[in-house]
Design a protein that fits this description.
It is built from 14 helices and 9 strands. By secondary structure, the chain is of the alpha+beta class. The chain has 3 domains: 2-64, no CATH class; 115-305, no CATH class; 327-419. Residues 61-108 are annotated as: Disordered.
Length: 427
């Protein structure tokens, strides 16, 4: 893993092409790595000017902002396609000190620029359902084709309001392991076992859209809510009842029936949630004549004021996780010690049994040897013409049976430590 500080030192110490060769990548790829990590690179002609003492001083390495990627896996880890947008203002807030509200920036937020075309490059949907764009690295905005322009406008102003209170809004960087939540797009959620098991099938991006505050990252979504919509079956397809009523003359002679489905209804909800695995989320949604557009400033302020609460939850979760980790380490240590004691006991038992087996085999061999000795005395009493043949047979039998030296038997025995070397000292 190469940190941005290490990469900065390397690219200002020797030409980029040499650094790239050392990592086994192209110079173009390494330049993109520098862009992603916000590491300045020597300008064209820098090394020639340096050779004659006319090069400008090296650019300083800018401080990493909240949410910046700070390292690169040179062994092939994922790298974002482009560096996240960098805000003009930098916030030096502490987690417990709310920032005095600034003025939201004008124009289009970098995350929204060009997003409309990508959202409309969608998989096919029916009856004005939610768009399902092919591209996965998009702002976390969920809406139908009819409402996607308004949804992106809401997201644009929400991001600007959040940056006005000190956040940095960006798509979560790769390799971080962001936690998400299961969002319910229904305006009036209710218990549904089938839905809980299979999910709703609503599109979601590969990584969440993050509002980075100092030490806390919160996910933000803009979602068009759904409700039960009356559909009518006409000519082999379901169409909305409103469309049917508007074109009665066209459909009046066809056999039809009605049903209801959950479909987008044009009202919006904003959700903020913790991306650090703690149970915290908050929603704001349109009700009656109240639109989300007039709530965005208040939403951004409430999200900013929730930062200390979320940070406390995250710190407590980390503390509990550390307690669980230490408990796991202690339990694993106890398990290893118990396993070591068990294997030591098994090695002692196995060694004892092995020694007993050695003694038994030697005793059996000595019994055979006594038989051979008695046999030898009997052969000596035979006539000369029979003795030679029998002695030859006796010699062959001795060779078959092998040694009678107890040292040869004893060398085959294994001590407990030869069977298993203890990991821990005897307690």
């Amino acid at each position: 893993m190469v940190t941005r500080e290490q990469l900065y030192d390397q690219v200002w110490s020797e030409p980029m092409i040499k650094v790239a060769e050392r990592y086994g990548v192209s110079g173009t790829y390494l330049a993109r790595v520098c862009d992603v990590l916000n590491v300045p690179r020597p300008p064209r002609g820098y090394w020639q000017k340096l050779a004659v003492g006319k090069a400008a001083p090296a650019e300083t390495l800018p401080e990493a902002l909240s949410g910046d990627q700070t390292s690169w896996d040179e062994k092939g880890g994922p790298l974002p396609r482009q560096a996240p947008p960098r805000p003009v203002r930098q916030s030096a807030l502490g987690p417990g000190r709310p920032k005095k509200r600034g003025k939201p920036s004008e124009g289009v937020h970098p995350l929204i620029r060009g997003a409309l075309a990508e959202f409309r490059r969608s998989r096919p949907v029916d009856n004005g359902g939610y768009l399902k764009p092919y591209k996965k690295l998009l702002p976390y905005v969920v809406a139908s084709d009819d409402q996607i322009e308004r949804a992106l406008d809401v997201a644009n102003r929400l991001y600007q309001e959040l940056e006005a209170v000190g956040a940095r809004v960006m798509i979560g960087t790769g390799g971080h392991g962001w936690y998400g939540i299961t969002l319910d797009e229904r305006e009036h959620p209710k218990e549904d076992r089938q839905r809980a098991y299979y999910g709703s099938g609503v599109w979601s991006p590969m990584r969440p859209t993050i509002a980075h505050f100092p030490d806390v990252a919160l996910g933000v979504t803009v979602m068009e809510m759904s409700g039960e919509v009356l559909l009518r079956y006409v000519g082999g397809n379901y169409i909305r009842e409103t469309e049917y009523q508007a074109n009665l003359r066209m459909y009046r002679h066809q056999h039809t029936w009605t049903t209801t489905r959950e479909l987008p209804i044009g009202r919006f909800r904003v959700t903020a949630f913790s991306t650090d695995g703690v149970q915290w989320s908050k929603t704001w949604q349109e009700k009656g004549s109240t639109t989300i557009d007039g709530m965005l400033g208040r939403i951004a302020g409430e999200i900013r004021r929730a930062v200390p609460e979320v940070q406390a939850l995250v710190e407590e979760a980390r503390r509990q996780a550390e307690i669980r980790r230490q408990e796991w380490i202690a339990a694993e240590e106890r398990r290893k010690r118990e396993d070591d004691r068990r294997r030591v006991a098994e090695s002692v038992k196995q060694s004892q049994e092995g020694l007993g087996g050695v003694i038994t085999r030697w005793a059996d061999r000595m019994a055979v040897e006594r038989f051979f000795e008695e046999l030898s005395r009997s052969i000596d009493k035979l006539p000369e013409e029979q003795r030679s043949d029998m002695l030859e047979r006796l010699q062959m039998a001795r060779e078959f049976m092998g040694t009678v030296d107890p040292l040869d038997f004893f060398r085959a025995w294994k001590t407990p430590k030869e069977i298993y070397q203890p990991v821990y000292s005897v307690e």
